[in-house]
Amino acid sequence: MAAKLLEKIGLQWPIFQAPMAGTSTPAMAAAVSNAGALGALGLAAEKAEGAGKMIAATRALTNRPFNVNVFCHRPAIPNAPVEAAWILRLKPEFTALGAEPPTALREIYETFRGNAAMTALLLETRPAIVSFHFGLPEKNQIAALKEAGILLFGSATSLAEAKQLADVGIDAIVAQGYEAGGHRGLFDYAAHDDRLGAFALTRLLVKHFDLPVIAAGGIMDGAGIAAALRLGATAAQMGTAFVGCPESAADQGYRAALASTAANHTAMTRAISGRPARCLANRFTRLAENVPDAAIPDYPITYDLGKALHAAGKAKGEFGFGAQWAGQGAPLSRPMPAAELVRVLVAEMRDESDKRE
User: Fold this and answer.
1) pLDDT tens-digit profile of 166-225?
2) What pLDDT is attached to residue 357?
């Protein structure tokens, strides 16, 4: 099954670069794909016009397949009193930076669910793969993308979510473990989360579903890739490993934190964006340690204030309010060009296989 999927996509190596919205770039996706792995673009922060430009820029750099990722969250539920209280709670941080917070918060990202413009763009550009996070789009969107010959991947954090993906004909499941960096892919973030690790979840999905499974979460080197493959995964998806690459859009503060002892500590927090996401422990995560969930506005409304606070901090040389998404394997990060990292990962993966023969 693994060989069939890799052959169908046209990949040489079972290595997938995670589609990190705001961090992955056309240069990164193209470099990874040109090296025989699967590059990816995170389009969650883009409207159709910006997404089209990113896809075109990637295609100008590679003729190989790549993945584009969209978020399928339910639209935000505004709550003016909660949002006003959230602004007031963070106002002292803005004041200390010599800045003023926004007077009101906006829903800054559109969901892909029912998004006609984004659907039309994907049907026109036909990327090899479209992947979904936070759930699934509408059935007619899935049918149209499949009819266009696009492979569909979906992220799952549990058996129940994986079953929903399998039931609508998704081609492969990304098993996102609790140790993964960035946004937790929960379909409903208010529901109970069993917080399964990547390897336990991978084994469960391999056992219960006749679909390719891509292991994601905490995998940083060839040994981790080899371990995932031995557990039955078709490939390993890696995000934090690529954040330090020069092709990444990570700012200098993010890179510096990832390369420091700060990488030894991550935290899962809702306070930055409104949804649970794993971040390097920084000023923002510490600020949010004792904040009750009920005080945090809905996603992505919360993110509007989070981004404003980060911008105010950066203007003063303070990067500790950034969304420095990173998985628990962050201390294993090795900054190097993306294509070189793929070559290193392949060599390490082969070395692990040789040891077992």
Assistant:
1) 999 999 999 999 999 999 999 999 999 999 999 999 999 999 999 999 999 999 999 999
2) 63
Fill in the DSSP letter of residue 73.
Answer: P
Please tell me whether the peptide bond between 212 and the residue prior to it is cis, using omega within 30 degrees of 0.
no
pLDDT for 355 beyond 90: no
Q: What is the pTM of this model?
A: 0.96
Task: Check the CA dihedral 93-96-102-104 and report its sign.
Answer: positive
Q: Per-residue pLDDT averaged across 3-25, rounded?
A: 95
Superfamily of 1-75+111-250 according to CATH: Aldolase class I (3.20.20.70)
Residue 67 has pLDDT above 80, yes or no: yes
What single string gives the DSSP state of each residue in 257-278?
A: HHTSGGGG-EEEESTTTSS-EE
Q: Is 147 left (phi over 0), alpha (psi -120 to 50) or beta?
A: alpha
Instruction: Quote the mean pLDDT of the chain.
Output: 97
Break the chain into its structural domains and give their ranges. 1-75+111-250, 76-108+260-332
- What's the rounded Cα separation, in Å, for the pair 229 and 198? 12
**Cα–Cα distance for residue pair 185/324, rounded to 1 Å:** 17
The CA distance from 338 to 333, in Å, is: 12
How far apart are the C-alpha atoms of 343 and 357, rounded to whole Å?
A: 21
Please name the helix (run of DSSP H) or strand (run of DSSP E) that holds residue 200, with its range, or none.
Answer: helix 198-208
CB neighbour list of residue 176: distance below 8 Å, 6 or more residues apart: 155, 156, 157, 184, 185, 198, 201, 216, 217
